[in-house]
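Appendix B, record 7
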Amino acid sequence: MFDLRQCSASARAENPSKFSAAAEPKPQQDRNDTVTGLRCAPRRITSMPYASNNDLPASVKLHLPEHAQDIFRKAFNNAWRTYSTREPRRCEEIAHRVAWAAVKKRYRKVGEDWDPYPTS
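Structure tokens (predicted):
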């Protein structure tokens, strides 16, 4: 069922009949595994976007060392699972922020390279 609380007040104000219970559109599946037909709060179907480091975005693969890529992937997947039910509209954004924060706890950027912090 579509949750009206997830829509912004301005979206409901623009077209109130679209957001009434009687005029609720039926979601349809598109080729990207995203539920469409709803103006607000599309839901993602995928459960773990990055199965391996080869699946990571190019910006991560090209710049981070292998171990940092592992950290990024594991943190991203864990955050994705955690926030996909709590914040479905911002899940990907939050997962990327969590993953980069996890990398930055173990690595620092020196020039163009990412170097691990010295161990004590």
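Remarks on this record: Confidence is low (pLDDT under 50) at residues 29-46. The longest strand covers residues 107-110.
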